[in-house]
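Handout, section B. The chain below has 353 residues.
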Amino acid sequence: MKKLSIISLLLCLCLTVTLVLSACSNSETASTSESDSTEAATVDSAKTDGIDYMALVNKTHPLPENWEDQLETVHMTNSVGDDVEVEKKAYDAYLELKTALEAEDIHVDLDSARRSVADQQRIMDEFTEEYGADYAAKTVAQPGYSEHHTGLALDLYLIIDGKDVVENEDMIVYTDIWAKIHEKLADYGFILRYLDGEEHITGYGYEPWHIRYIDDVDTAKEITSKGITFEEYLGAYTGGDVTVDYGTSEIYTEDELKDAVIQIKCKFAFWGDVDLKSIRYAGDEAVTDENLKWMNELAPDAGYTQVAEFLMGFHTPAEIGELTFNPDADYTNYQWWLARTSDGGWEVVSFGY
């Protein structure tokens, strides 16, 4: 198979931030005391035929039809003055979680929750108009495929010594605090949604702040205790373990190579039932001026200064849909080419044989 650029192959792309620490993730901001939050919350609607709290919405599973017509939400104002809309039961559970955390002197607030399909489409249209369709596709989640549409996905932020900590790169360093928060999630019907190392399943990098309400404590505890993703629990992903080999590089650190692998995994998440087996760094011998020139020819405005190649092994399902692979086949040494600028994160530029 001829090497193909990512623009021609991806059906849709990960919502990413430029920060490597949360490669392929999305977030927003929020905080007040429980009493303040309760007073600030106002009911947005009362459409109560009921929603499925176990509904899966991700890069390959769209928001169920009529979801927005059945959704009951509340609005609250967080500590930085932003309006946040949340599904009503998820908000009530969040307040209980917040109270329990405050008893341990851990303070959080809501950064973001529900974002409508219309809002997502507006963002997509704005980016398309300003930056072009290719750039918009690379940086904005496809409308209808964001878990935030459900109103059940909540992004938290921390309040440390009375100060709001809302930026991802600032929050990520508080590992001990996040661990304590995660320990309590299941008690209130929440799960941690995007697990470290499972980007090929979820399509997003590790986000300690992104939690999902599923309205069932026992189920939340089962998912948490097993250490599995929501997709795996629902049977939407049945693949096995993935072997990652960073090899030995005199050019890149293992952390730098891990950041590149996360980008690959996020793109792979679009491939549906394909079973990922392995990813390995192809070696420093691929880091050549010729390959760097090729990357910049594929993306003339990027100004890449570094390049890396990875090789992937995977098995395709019997029914491959629109993927251009042979069914029920093993693939090895499938090439992924990434590049970056001196001050930017890795980008998948091309993949294929």
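Note. The two ends are 5 Å apart (CA to CA). Compare this with the example in section A.
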